Structure formats: C-alpha cells, structure tokens
Task: inverse folding
C-alpha cells in the first residue's frame, strides 16, 4: 500500500509545486488555500486538487470565480466539494 499524501513529504512537496500557476490570481487563491488547509487534506481532496491543477489556467480561473462549474473529467463529487472550499478561501 502506498503512503498517504499526509505521511509522504515528497508527495506534499510535489502538490505544492503543482500549485504554482501562470496566472497570478490563480496562484494567490491556490497558495492561500494550501497555506491554510494543506496539512488537513485527505487523499480524496488531494486527488480533487490534482485534477484541478491539470486544467489550463483560464479554465481553473473560471471555476475558482464560479463563472463555470466542473465538467468532463473534473465533474466529480469530491472535485465539487473541494472547489467549494477553494472558492471560500
């Protein structure tokens, strides 16, 4: 069984690195969220976060600002739940 996100420092560092975005607005929102909540994220929330980080910057911005809702590969309950937390951050 592989280590959980929280028990693996390499996984945590990789998540923080993936959070770096080209758009400053995305970077600020995502970094602020991680600063406040990274240590309490579950593996399911990390999966949702990773799926969001796979999106292009403009698509991510539209989701963070609630201009759009998740669709396709990110239209999953745990992604919706994390996005609600990100929007409130």
Result:
């Amino acid at each position: 069984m592989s280590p959980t996100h929280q028990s693996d420092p390499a996984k945590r560092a990789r998540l923080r690195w993936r959070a770096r975005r080209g758009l400053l607005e995305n970077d600020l929102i995502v970094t602020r969220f991680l600063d406040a909540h990274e240590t309490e994220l579950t593996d399911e929330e990390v999966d949702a976060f990773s799926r969001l980080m796979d999106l292009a910057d403009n698509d991510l911005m539209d989701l963070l600002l609630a201009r759009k809702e998740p669709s396709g590969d990110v239209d999953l309950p745990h992604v919706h739940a994390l996005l609600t937390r990100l929007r409130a951050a």
